[in-house]
Amino acid sequence: MLDIRNRLPGACAIVLSLVFTPCALAVESTEIPANESQIGNRITDSQTGENDRKIVKTAGYDKNSDNGFFFNTKDESFSLNIGAYTQARYDINWRNTGTDDDIVEDDFYFNITSLYFIGQLTRWFDYHFRMNYDDEGESDLQVAYLQYNINDLWTLRAGQQFVAISREDWMFPQDLLATDFSANDATFAYGAPMAIQAHYEGAQQRFWAALSDVAIGGSVQIDNLPDTTLTGRWENQVSGRDWSIWDDIVGRRGRSKGILLGLAGVLQPGENESGTGKSAQLNMDLSFNGDGYQAMLAASLTRLEPRYTDSFINYGILLQGGYFITTHLQAYTQFDLVSPGDQPGELETFHSITAGVNYFPFPWRNRWKFSFEVAHMFDIINKTIVEPSRSLGWQPSDEKGQTYLRLQAQFGF
Which CATH architecture group holds 4-412? Predict the structure, then answer.
């Protein structure tokens, strides 16, 4: 039986989106080109009058913005944008039992519901707050930071924020190619710790570096300052000079061609509460974007030095790509490999393959998306280093082989 209390956040988001979005889409007076950048985003809404006099709207809804409800002062020194979205899912999971009778389970749930409050505090400072509600109805303030806009090239953030060491890790869930993050990201991602992060963005290259308080893997909090973690990521547009095409892993029609190379590293110089000593991680990804397609190859290598055993290395490889058959319909596929490397124990390498289609009702935004996805995992999930997860689609099992079919409706305002 469904617990209504656990469905309230998703239900509220559904009601709000169904009520407000159709009305907002009919308002053409606020239509402006969307600024898709996730970094240093300054959001205002203005129009030019008959005598070139600037008329500033202090409140309204912009259908082109993901967080479309806005409020700002007349001098545009302060702004607030509000948005929300949810993911409603229906999953069917098949897995072996070692007998003639397989386990078949179905499940309906709201995977995630997010509320956004972002904007400009002054002309020099931006802010970002994001509240998440998970499939159990538990709330979490995932992002809460203040950003100092030093100049057109440099920004400095302080607070709880994403420290991305891969392209996938930098994305919002709505901007992924598949219905969820990969097993690679779930295993090796760094997450959203408390951090100080500096960011530089030029015409061809950009990089960011951070000092934060979470161990590699994002699951262990560090108490003492000497045990903090250093991270950095560098990106280079090998071909093309348009950063906006890399704001998602979707690859819409009408976008320019480009090739992006990303390199990242993580260093944890001291022990943490889990007993792990010095740890390090290296990441590389190569992305290709064109008119209606995007593909990515990503690899991750993690070295861990436990206190009481020999050091070992884990690694992962991710391949994915999508192509728009029409303006609204996209087909995609993904291959995921997560290996324990030489980690002690009777462990197996995780392999999975995914295929699906996405339907985007509106060609200018990713927040509305309807997906059909099927995936197969070839191994014993309980013997891999990938944690079974309702969100990933994989259930605990001591037998080889597991398949899921997923229908997902993603929408918001």
Answer: Beta Barrel (2.40)
Report residue 160 as tokens.
Answer: 């709880």
* Cβ pair 38, 32 in contact under 8 A: no
CB 249 within 8 A of CB 296: yes
Q: What is the CA radius of gyration of the chain?
A: 22
Instruction: Report pTM.
Output: 0.82
| E strands in 96-177 | 103-120, 125-134, 139-149, 154-160
Pick from 248, 273, 274: which is nearest to 260 by CA? Answer: 248
Q: Would you give the DSSP letter of residue 381? A: G
Distance separating alpha carbons of residues 139 and 234, to the nearest angstrom: 33
Q: For residue 189, what are its two tokens?
A: 């991602």
pLDDT, residue 160, reads: 93
How confident is the model over 133-177, as pLDDT tens digits? 887 778 889 899 999 999 999 999 999 998 989 999 889 899 999
- How many CB atoms within 10 Å of residue 313? 14
Tokens of 341: 């490397």
**Cβ atoms 80, 59 nearer than 8 A:** no
